[in-house]
Backbone:
């Protein structure tokens, strides 16, 4: 193990392992640490969409196809009034359990970098105003201090890097709380991801995502600020929907809950820009609050942030400049790439809070092929998605 690394990456999930893989392939000295031992489970919806370019750049797609997964070609929406629409994607997406998917990226990174598993980071090493490394304990309880030019926080919603540098942001208006479970033998599962805006759940939604091997990822998500106003528990409501909703009661009649898979978590979403850099450190993925505010999907943005981070860490190494001012270019780059999409997704999240608008859109799409084609284009194009927040779009819907 070198005395000092070019980069120390905390968290070996999609963001951290992606960053490590790209840096390691360029020959940089990188240490990747994680508190768990891989493969490990991670509570998530498991959907992978916009990361496909990054996935392809790492040559992961052939590996994913060899593992248990689902290819998805459509999205199904249902409105509070019970109407259901089915919109095809223009390109394929994937759903893969995190225990499988994360391990594929981790193994890719492991080929090129040093790895410490079952390592708990307890503090950051500071030199003046700069983060210069990490302190932690091995699985044997041995205390270790490791130096690095830049520390990368890819350690999720409760990132120690974000906490120690004062970059944590837990605003309940920009955080989602969710619960998920895995079921087998659910009826009528297709090549679609399903988002259901049910009367009893709005302003949240219920999802069903196929994950392969006759299994689905099922859950409920809602903005924390809204959930605080509810008088029910999220897990109870999920089971109530599964057992009693007219849309799902029959579909789950013979389904079997996979033991131990009911888990909750919080998702810092990209409906606001959080600080993701400082002297000697940057934040990636969930630690940077890059989760999609509408779908709750974070894997794709995490991987893209990891790829962008690798580029700017290399620039910082070449310039021997790890200052806040220099690393700000990383954060700006991330928001130039993802910011517009996150902004539009936030507007779609707010649209999904209004029963009248959801019912209107779904009713019109159900009846009108032209509107269905328009919505399909919007789902694939961030630029076209602007129309979902345009008053003119809804006037056209009303009179179509």
Residues:
């Amino acid at each position: 193990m070198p005395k000092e690394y070019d980069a120390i990456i905390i968290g070996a999930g999609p963001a951290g392992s992606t960053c490590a893989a790209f840096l390691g392939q360029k020959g940089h000295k990188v240490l990747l640490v994680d508190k768990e031992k891989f493969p490990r489970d991670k509570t998530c919806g498991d959907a992978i969409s916009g990361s496909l370019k990054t996935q392809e750049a790492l040559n992961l797609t052939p590996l994913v196809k060899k593992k248990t997964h689902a290819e998805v070609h459509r999205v199904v929406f249902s409105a509070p009034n019970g109407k259901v629409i089915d919109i095809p994607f223009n390109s394929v997406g994937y759903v893969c359990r995190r225990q499988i998917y994360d391990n594929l990226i981790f193994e890719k990174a492991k080929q090129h970098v040093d790895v410490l598993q079952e390592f708990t980071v307890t503090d950051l090493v500071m030199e003046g105003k700069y983060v210069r490394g990490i302190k932690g304990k091995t699985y044997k309880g041995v205390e270790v201090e490791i130096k690095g030019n830049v520390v990368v926080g890819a350690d999720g919603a409760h990132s120690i890097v974000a906490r120690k540098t004062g970059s944590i942001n837990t605003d309940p208006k920009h955080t989602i709380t969710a619960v998920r479970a895995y079921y087998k033998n659910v009826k009528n599962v297709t090549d679609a991801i399903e988002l259901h805006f049910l009367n009893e759940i709005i302003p949240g939604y219920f999802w069903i995502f196929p994950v392969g091997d006759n299994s689905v990822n099922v859950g409920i998500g809602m903005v924390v600020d809204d959930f605080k106003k509810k008088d029910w528990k999220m897990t109870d409501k999920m089971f109530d929907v599964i057992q009693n909703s007219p849309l799902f009661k029959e579909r789950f009649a013979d389904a079997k809950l996979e033991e131990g898979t009911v888990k909750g978590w919080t998702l810092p979403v990209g409906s606001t820009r959080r600080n993701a850099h400082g002297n000697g450190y940057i934040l990636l993925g969930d630690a940077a609050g890059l989760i999609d505010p509408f779908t709750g999907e974070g894997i794709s943005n995490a991987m893209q942030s990891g790829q962008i981070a690798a580029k700017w860490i290399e620039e910082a190494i070449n310039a021997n400049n790890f200052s806040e001012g220099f690393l700000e270019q990383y954060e700006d780059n991330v928001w130039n790439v993802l910011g517009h999409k996150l902004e539009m997704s936030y507007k779609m999240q707010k649209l999904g809070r209004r029963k009248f608008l959801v019912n209107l859109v779904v009713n019109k799409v159900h009846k009108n092929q032209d509107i269905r084609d328009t919505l399909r284009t919007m789902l694939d194009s961030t630029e076209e998605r602007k129309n979902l927040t345009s008053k003119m779009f809804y006037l056209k819907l009303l009179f179509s």
